[in-house]
Structures are given as structure tokens and as C-alpha cells.
Amino acid sequence: MTAGRVIDAHAHILSEETMALMRKAAPGIGPKLERIDDDFAVLTVAGSPYRPFPRGGWDMAKRFSDMDGAGVDVQVVSNTPQTFLYNQEAALTAALAALQNDQIAAAVAAHPERLMGIATLPMQAPQLAADELRRAMRKLGLRGAQIGSNVNGRNLDDPALEPLWAAADELAAFIMVHPTQVAGAERLKSYYLTNLIGNPLDTTIAAACLVFGGVVGRYPRIKFLMVHGGGFVPYQAGRFSHGWQVRPEPRASLTSPPDAALETLYFDTIVHSRPALEFLVASAGASRVLLGSDYPFDMGTLDCARQVLALAVPEADKATILGGAAMKLL
């Protein structure tokens, strides 16, 4: 892999082979597809349907065609959030995570010039998650992991997660935090608000808990990527800092202002607005912004690289966002 390649740091994969293996291991919850047409299917995992699931999620030829059309050289692939399975029995989730990670590693091995990979972990069992992260990175060659923004409603500063953070720090892991089981879901049922508002909201909660809970400070070698532009974090970082100054509650676990911890977080480009993306780059710096598409989902974008190229920022910053920053991290 040479310098200057365009790297999409946020993309998902779930091949038909992986689905079949998961169904064989866990017939009651393994993913299955019901085709809608040539381009879309209904994806059902553990009895919960998701629609439409685009063909690129399972079809490698379609994926590479879409990447070529988008001007993306390399995708960093992770499991689909539907297969986190944190609400299942821990040993089963661990087995299915290992199976998915083996499959992601095999896809990377088959297409090393087009794919890099990160793992999924059984987050409801932190020691098992730590063990799987070590296996995925040391034996499979994956570059880190994708984790949910909460674990069955528990925030990411939960003390039970310390074994995972210790392992991730030891490995200097890249950890992509992706929304799941979002807060306020009962009030977000209309208008697709569970995604439009719930996803960035839960990313914001996750980032705030990692910062105010001291996780970022205790484990400085972990490289946290907060997806979808970091939710509301870049826009409200000043509010976080002000709150720490004037209120005792934000200082419960954080003995210094949150600014330094916030400045270690990374964000992807998925904000769907040029002014918002230019604000993100100006506030975080190009070295902390990674190209992302959220492929293959409809709330992502195949215009990600073109959006970066259209920004009113220096060419060097564009190169950093398009792949330079990801190359350093991964």
C-alpha cells in the first residue's frame, strides 16, 4: 500500500458466507437475507429486520465497483452494527464475533490492496472482549475494533470495561465507536429520528463518557474514532469545557479540563454538509478527520472523497483527510 491512497475508514461488511456460518453456529439468531430485488434485501438478525440492506454489503464485486466510482482505493471494513449482538449470551456473542473476525481477516487477505479490517467484540463480557481484541490484532492482523456506543445501556466509562481498555491501550488499538441501542428511542420513533438524531446523540454520549469518565486520560495509546462527524461533540466542545469550569459534577472523575482529552479524539467526514465539514476540519484539524462513507448504508455517502476535494482547505489538508491520517493511525 503506497502513500497517497484514498482510505475510507468507516465501511461495513457482511458476506453471504459469513451469514451462513453464523446461521450454522446459531440458527435462531444468525443473519439471513430476503432479496427485495437485484440491489437490495431485507437483513434479519436475531429476529429483527433491517431494510433496505444494499447489495454492496454482501457482494464484493459490487463493493469494488462502488469504491472505484467513489474514488476510494481502500476500505477499512468492520461488521455491520446489526451483528454486535450484545444482548445475547456472552459466550455465543464471543463465538460469533470470532467467526466474523476470521471472515473479515480472510477478506482482507484475499484483497490486501483494497481492504483493511477491524474486529467486533463481545462487549457484554469485557474480559472476553479483551481476549478477542488481542487475538484479532496479533493473530489475524486486524487493526483494532468497532464497538457500540453503549453496552446494553451501560455507558463506556463503566468500570467493568477496564480490562478491554487495558488491552486496547497495550495494543495501541484503533477503536471506532459506532452508535447502537440509542438513547431516547421511545421519543424518536417518528420520522426516522432514531437515526437522524439518535445516532449522533449516542455518539456524543459515548464521547462525553470516555472523556469525563477519564478513560481517554488513563489509556492514552487508544485511538478513538467517533463516527458521523463525532455527533454533537465538535460543536459543543466549548460547552463541555465551560461545564467543567463551573460545575462540580464534570470534575468527579476528571481532574483537569476536558480540552486535552477532547483533542485526542478522531472524527469521520460523514456530516452531509460542506459548511459542517469545513467547521469540523477547522476546529479539530485535518490530522484528526478521517474519510468515511458508512458503506453500504443509505445514511452514508459515496460522495465522501468528492466532498473532501471540494472543501476550501489547503491541498495538504485534503490529502491528510483522504488517507494520510488513516495511514498513520492504522
Description of the molecule:
This protein is an alpha/beta fold and 330 residues long. It has one domain (7-28, 60-329): Metal-dependent hydrolases (TIM Barrel), CATH 3.20.20.140. The chain contains 13 helices and 12 strands. The strands form 3 sheets. The chain has a 6-stranded parallel β-sheet. Strands 1-5-6 form a 3-stranded parallel β-sheet. A hairpin with a 4-residue loop joins strand 2 (32-35) and strand 3 (40-45). Helix 1 runs antiparallel to helix 3 and helix 4 (126-138) runs parallel beside helix 5 (162-170). The radius of gyration is 19 Å and the shape is globular. The chain starts with 6 loop residues before the first strand and ends with a helix. The model has no long low-confidence stretch (mean pLDDT 97).
